[in-house]
User: Fold this.
Amino acid sequence: MLSTSWMPGGAGAAGLEGLLRQAQEQQRRLADFQRQRAELRVTGESPDGLVQVTVDGDMKVGDIQLNPRAMRLDSFTLVESLQAAIDAAYAAHAERQRELVEEMVGGADLVRRAEAGKVTPEDWFRHFGVDINDPLRRLRG
Assistant:
């Protein structure tokens, strides 16, 4: 049996095992997020539909598709269409990554509040069951 006499309040092994399970679950969620992000592929299209651009998980442009009609455009208009498709792909990437983060942390509301600067570190960690002012509180049971 695990001795926890060194911990404040004589915490039991069950509390420690619970924290270990929680940490392992968070680690699994983070690994899943990283895998999904690495596999991410999103496509953006220009408003005229003549250019499609694919961006990968590292936000690198991986594929550019030009409709044959795009070759009739003047260079200025073609560049505008290309830039619009790249911008659309980056916007789609940001949105999908946001969705992945929301899935990982368990809620869009927490992410929105954090982006707005309305979440303190204490609130963020409390969402995951951690009191950063008293990290051993759960062990004391």
Notes: The first strand starts at residue 41 and ends at 45.
